[in-house]
Specification:
Distance between the termini: 35 Å
Largest sheet: 4 strands, antiparallel
Number of domains: 2
Helix content: 40-55%
Structural class: alpha+beta
Mean pLDDT: 88
CATH architecture of the largest domain: Sandwich
Low-confidence stretches: 190-198
Number of strands: 8
CATH superfamily of the largest domain: Jelly Rolls
Strand order of the largest sheet: 1-8-3-6
Number of helices: 8
Length: 198
């Protein structure tokens, strides 16, 4: 876990051994089986989660349909940010797709961590800004990119997930009809892979 956390945090700043030891004291490891709802709509999100192992989706209900807004794997951050930041009930569900291990830190604990060193507060805000900016870019893609462009962009940056995430979840996340998704997968698969190999 220490090596994993150091690698994750090094994206956002320098982490000393002492700082990492402090973080481990304030966080906790949480394990879940596959198909486990970690948080339900209407609950208040207490945790910011870094995925150590596994695969997770975040979605909300629109009438009878599940609308997926986030797919996250190892090294990704996931939380119901609408609730984590506001302390109000969330509109989302977070569910594991595979058996999953989180390194989690609660709102109370992260505030205590911030109090130990101002550097942690700066890093925490940097991580949250990165997380929220990534979600915003996804929202823009849903509006600006064509169906085919959304498919190709996700394939190019997350090709490994195409064999892990159920196709119906990928189609929902990319806002593509399942039939269209299947057709794109068959027609684009080899040209896109060729681009990766060059």
């Amino acid at each position: 876990m220490e090596i994993f956390l150091r690698k994750f945090l090094s994206q956002f700043g320098e982490v000393t051994d002492d700082a990492l030891e402090t973080l481990l004291q304030y966080g906790e490891i949480r394990n879940y089986d596959r198909k486990t709802i970690v948080i339900h709509e209407g609950e208040i999100e207490d945790y910011l989660n870094i995925i150590y192992k596994g695969l997770v989706r975040k979605f909300f209900m629109s009438n009878e349909d599940e609308v997926i807004t986030h797919l996250a794997a190892e090294g990704d951050l996931i939380t119901a940010s609408d609730s984590y930041l506001s302390r109000r009930p969330t509109h989302y569900f977070i569910e594991t797709i595979e058996p999953t291990t989180f390194f989690s830190i609660s709102v109370d604990q992260i505030n205590r961590l911030y109090a130990t060193d101002k550097k942690w507060e700066f890093m925490g805000r940097t991580i949250l800004t990165h997380f929220l900016t990534s979600l915003e870019r996804w929202e823009i893609d849903q509006i600006k990119l064509t169906t085919k462009e959304r498919f190709i962009k996700y394939w190019e940056s997350h090709e490994q997930l195409f064999n892990r995430v159920p196709q119906k979840y990928l189609a929902s996340y990319l806002n593509i009809q399942p039939e269209t998704f299947s057709r794109l997968k068959q027609s684009i698969k080899f040209p896109v892979r060729t681009l990766h190999e060059t």
